[in-house]
Amino acid sequence: MLSNLRSVEKSQTLLLNEQSRNLENSGREVFKFGFGQSPFLPPARAIAALQQNADQKAYSPVQGITALREAVAEFHREAEGIDITADRVLIAPGSKILIYAAMAAFTKADILIPAPAWVSYRPQAQLLGHKAISVTTSANQRWRVTPESLEKALAHKSGPTIPSMLILNYPGNPDGLTYTADELKALAATFRKHNIIVISDEIYGLLDHQGKHRSLALDYPEGAIVTGGLSKWCGAGGWRLGVALLPKALDGEFKETMLGIASETYSCAALPVQMAACVAYAWDQQTRDYLAHQRRILALSAGAMAEKLQQAGLLVEKPEGAFYMFLDFTPLMANLKSQGIITSHQLCEKLLKDTGIALLPGDAFGMESGHLSARLAYVEFDGVAAMKASEKIGLDKTLNIDFLQQYLGKNMRGTELLCDWLAGMATAKPVRIAS
Predict the structure, then answer these.
(1) Contact predicate 137/115, CB 8 Å
(2) Mean pLDDT for all residues in the chain
C-alpha cells in the first residue's frame, strides 16, 4: 500500500535543532550554532498589536489583507527603492511556501540552485518534479554566482522551451555574504539574455551589516520575484509571515496561478499576525534604530569569530549580513582524514560528540559530501539582553570588547572551543580505519 511514497527527508535544520535540544536535556552544554533563528524579540509595538488582535479569527483574502499589502509596498519602496504596489504583493504563512508556490506555478521548469544554498530549495524543486540544476560556486569566488558559472549550469537545461528559474539568496544562507552593485548588474544581464525568472530570496536583506542591501529588483525589475518576511529582521520566525513582491511582467496569469495554488493549500496567513505585521512594516526612525542595533551586534560577533577561525586555519569569509558563516575545512583535511573524518556529516557528528558544538554539514546545502564544510549560525546569545545593552550605550557610541565578552560570550567560547578542537586534530595520533 505504501510502496509509492515520496522520498522526502526531514529538514536538516529542524532535525539538528532537535538533536541539540536532546543533548542539552541530558546535561551537556551545547553551542547551538546549527539552527539559524533570530535571537532578538520583535518590536514591542508589533507584539502589542498581535496581542490586541488575538480575537481576529476570520479568514483573510488569499493574497493578504489590503492594509498589510499597502504597508509592505510602502515599506520596501522607502527602505529599498523597489517599484512595487500593493496589488503585486502576496502575503503567506512564511516565505518558504511562497518560494514553493512560485516554482509550482509551472508544470515543468529547470530550477537553478547555487551550491551552497539554503537546504529547502532543492527538495522543494524535487517535490514538484522539476529538474534541479546546481550552479557551482567556490571559496575563491566567495561562494558567489557569476555570469560564467550560470552559463555553465545552463548547459544542463532540459531544453530551450522549458522555463528557467534561479533561486538567489543574499545576504546568503549559509555564507552570510552579499553581492556588489556591479555583480548584480552583471548577473542581471545574463538573466535578461536567457529570460530567467529569479526568485530573489532577500529575507536577510535588512540585516546587511552595513545597512546597504541592494535588491535585485532594482537591476532586474522585469524578472525578479523578491521574497521576504518577518522571520529574520523582525525576529518573528514562529509568527510565519512571508511576503512576495512580483514584477509587473508577472502581474497577470502568473500571479493568478500562484493565488490559485495558495487557495488550495495554505488559504491565507493568520489574521492576527497580519494585523501585527501592519505595525511592524513601518519604515520610521523606530524601525531604523531597531535594525541598526541588531546589525552592529551581529557584525561585532561575526568579525571576532571569523578572525579566530581564520587564524585556526579554516577558509571563512567575514560575514556581510544575516547571521551565518560558511566554514571550509579543506586546508585541514589531512588532519581530519587521519581521524577517520572524510565527510561533512562525520565532521559535524564528531564535533558535536566531542565538544557540544552543533554545526550543519555542508552537504545539507548542496555541497559534495567529501568537501568538508559546515554552516555556523552566530546567534548563540541572549538577544534581549544584548539589545537592551546596545540601546543603553546608544548608536552614537561604538560597541567594544567588553560588550563582546559580556553579551556575546557564548559565541566566543564556542569559537575558541572549536579552534582548540581543530588544534587537537592536528596533534592527535591517526586512528586505524577498519577495512
Answers:
(1) yes
(2) 95
Measuring CA to CA, how many Å separate 160 from each of 154, 199, 230?
10, 20, 37
Give me the residues paired with residue 169 across strands.
201
**Distance in angstroms (rounded) separating the CA atoms of residues 102 and 114:** 18
DSSP codes, 155-182: TT-S-TTS-EEEEEESS-TTT-----HH
**Domains of the chain with CATH codes:** 12-36+286-424 (3.90.1150.10), 44-282 (3.40.640.10)
Average pLDDT over residues 225-250: 98
Cα–Cα nearest to 342, from 373, 311, 376, 309: 373
What is the pTM (predicted TM-score) of this model? 0.94
- For 302-336, the pLDDT digits (tens) are 999 999 999 999 999 999 999 999 999 999 999 99
Sign, Cα dihedral of 92, 281, 183, 119: negative
CA 303 to CA 200: how far, in whole Å? Answer: 26
C-alpha to C-alpha distance for 42 and 276, rounded to whole angstroms: 10
Note if the bond before 116 is cis, omega within 30 degrees.
Answer: yes
pLDDT grade for 35, boundaries at 50, 70 and 90: confident
Give yes or no for a contact between 238 and 273, defined as CB atoms under 8 angstroms apart.
no
Radius of gyration for the alpha carbons in the chain, expressed in angstroms and rounded? 22
Q: How far is CA 221 from CA 145, 229, 247, 248, 313, in A?
A: 19, 20, 6, 8, 41
